[in-house]
Amino acid sequence: MNVIEIKNLTKTYGKARGITDISFNVEEGEIFGFIGPNGAGKSTTIRTLLSLIYPTSGSAAIFGKDCIQFAPEIKKEIGYLPSEVFYYDNMKVKDLLNYSASFYKKDCRKRIIELANIMDLDLNKKIDDLSLGNKKKVGIVQGLLHEPKLIILDEPTSGLDPLIQQKFFELLEEENKKGATILFSSHILSEVQRLCNRVAIIKEGKIVTVEKISTLQENNYKKFKMETKSALEANYFQISGVNNLEIRGNLTSFLFRGNINTVMRKIADIEITNLWIEEPDLEEIFMHYYEKEA
Amino acid sequence: MNIFLHELKSHRKSLLFWSIGVFLMVVSGMAKYAAYSSAGQSMNDLIADLPKSLRAVLGFNALDVSKISGYYGMLFLYLLLMATIHAAMLGATIIAKEERDKTSEFLFVKPVSRTTIITAKLLAAFTNIVVFNVVTFVSLLFFIGKYNSDGEAVNGDIALTMAGMFILQILFMVIGSALASVKRKTKTAPSLAASILLLSYMLSIVIDLNERMEGLKYLTPFKYFEAKNVMLGGGFERVYIIISIVLIIAFSTITYVFYKKRDLNV
Predict the structure, then answer these.
(1) What is the CATH number of the domain that holds A236?
(2) I want to staple A61 with a disulfide (CB 3.0 to 4.6 A). Which of A5, A115, B87, B194 is the partner?
(3) In chain A, what residues touch B112 (CB-CB under 8 Å)?
(4) Model ipTM value
């Protein structure tokens, strides 16, 4: 069953770039990554799903129901963490969470305390006095306290330290095991790779591809950069799988896709002073997809 | 209900300050009456000698300011101005503030419709307005009672003008909320509501100054329930009540219709 079904969703507004003809589905029980650079339309898509803004054309359904017509009903089972968290400044964390809980017809008190403990959040502080990271924690607790069936996260990790981030991911995996579906928007590939089953890549308001993470990783480039004692012959790394080969003096760099051992053997044969192997950043993944389209 | 209570709580402080403000206005206004009443007829003569334009701007009118009813008629204008400014800003702010404070991504993803949210907010604003009106009314009854040495029967007139003020408070509240819901940049709605209010106040003065503009009196709510008419003419004119009700319904409808359709600024 599809928890989210987006059909030809288009939103244009003013000068800001919107989204064009977006379609994808999120299946029940999966952690679905939604990835793209800043300003690509991730938040616009999510806000349309939540009927904060209305689509110019196209439609979206959540739990099989139109996301505008049945918005209040659908939202009972949605937990949302916005990319930038803003709350009523003069409220205490505790009061804000209770206010949030008051919208759902269940007793959330126990869950609030549980979540606050996991996230290491002080419930008695004023929202105004919280750091960005702590506000984000409030956002997380606020989004999860009613044990929603669909969790929508818009760049949730910004501002969280690695330790809390780790706990947060564990929490998400736990919720997922309990049956929650998660839509996880991010511009950081590694966190999407770590969590998600499938991913939609969005660029300039359009979906570039929807793929399984495993497929994406098989197709994935690694970025090699090395410093050698002396300049390499131009064709030393001319083997299959190597792209964008660039030799500048003692610095050699290229992208590689394929069996990593072949390239490691080649590297072992030469005298190097330094070596960097990096995951390609998003831009490079996109380049990969554009190359494929061309 | 939870939104209603939340709104009441978040406007509690501002309501307290406005109430103190209007209370002090009544206190200081009535303290000055002591001077007016002791001056007796000479004060009336002095005012009659003022140029008409100055009289209109200061709010002196056909009433006898040496009598407590006449003096109240003048004071009422200032109370009305204060009450409507409060109402207009409140109506605009209560709608606009979610977007101003960027809390719309909190409130509008909750399982409630926008209609429910607007209703709760307008009810909270309405409650604030009732409190403001009651505070004004009670302070007036108390202080006018205190200075009313002649034992003039004014309480009925005060009640009537307060009822007029209440209608205008509601009217300006929904003008404010309609502005906040129509405007894309909601942040500026409260100041725009206040500007519209001051403009219509100035229009009412211009009409006082220039008899040929009499026909424009339907355009400014400040002409609807003027103290001199309500007190001397004995009550409200039906046409103004009808206009007020029509406008209140119209602006409330605009608030709902536009807010339901708008893309929230997040």
Answers:
(1) 3.30.70
(2) A5
(3) 72, 75, 103
(4) 0.86
